[in-house]
Amino acid sequence: MVEGNINKPADPKNLTEGDKKHIPAIYVPKTIVAGEPFDVIVQVGLIPHVMEEKHHIEWIELYLNDTKIGKVELSLRKNKKAEATFTIKADKSLAGKESKLHALEHCNVHGTWEEFMTIKIS
Ligand SMILES: [Fe+2]
Predict the structure, then answer these.
(1) Which of 13, 97, 107, 117 meets the CB 3.0–4.6 Å disulfide criterion with 101?
(2) In angstroms, rounded to a whole number, what is the distance separating the alpha carbons of residues 30 and 4?
(3) In this structure, are residues 92 and 35 in contact, taking their beta carbons and an 8 Å threshold?
(4) Which residue from 44, 47, 56, 53 is spatially nearest to 113, judged by alpha carbons?
(5) How far apart are CA 122 and CA 114, in angstroms?
(6) Closest-CA residue to 45 (of 101, 120, 91, 106)
(7) Rounded to the nearest whole angstrom, what is the distance from the C-alpha of residue 17 to the centroid of ligand 1?
(8) The CATH number of the domain where 29 resides is what?
(9) Separation of CA 83 and ligand 1 centre (Å)
(10) Would residue 8 count as lying in a domain?
């Protein structure tokens, strides 16, 4: 699983601007069908994080039910926005159940942050 320290907002019900710039925002399609590929977009964050030489997002990672889907290393040259798209094909055994998405990102100044989302696969 995930290693190292993960930052948590001091008050999850009252996010600071810093929290909002680092907690990943996860976007999924309305309908997800087992066996059919779908895209998950992970954006950092709810307030877009900067991608500057001295301060930027280094990587974004995504898990589905603790299985690693992928890790995207961002490059200042190529990635103007701190976001990544992952394509998932959920196993047919997940049909009709709730599954858990877990996104992580790492900021070179502010460390690692995460977010979870429950999705329903049909
Ligand atoms: Fe940061």
Answers:
(1) 117
(2) 33
(3) yes
(4) 44
(5) 26
(6) 106
(7) 11
(8) 2.60.40.730
(9) 14
(10) no
Sign of torsion, CA 74 83 55 50?
positive
Residue 78, in any domain of the structure: yes
**Which residues in the chain show pLDDT less than 50?**
none
Domain count for the chain, please give it.
1
pLDDT, residue 3, reads 58
Residue 93 Cα, ligand 1 centroid: separation in angstroms? Answer: 38
Q: Catalogue the E-assigned strands of the chain.
A: 24-27, 37-44, 57-64, 67-73, 83-89, 97-107, 111-121
CA dist., res. 47 & res. 39, Å (int): 21
DSSP string, 39-63: EEEEEETTTTPP-BTTB-EEEEEEE
Average pLDDT over the chain, rounded to an integer: 96
**In angstroms, what is the span from residue 120 Cα to ligand 1's centroid?**
31
| The pLDDT value given to residue 2 | 58
pLDDT at site 101: 98
Q: How far is the CA of 62 from the centre of ligand 1 (A)?
A: 19
Residue pair 34/121 in contact (Cβ under 8 Å)? The answer is: yes
Tokens 């898990």 label which residue? 63
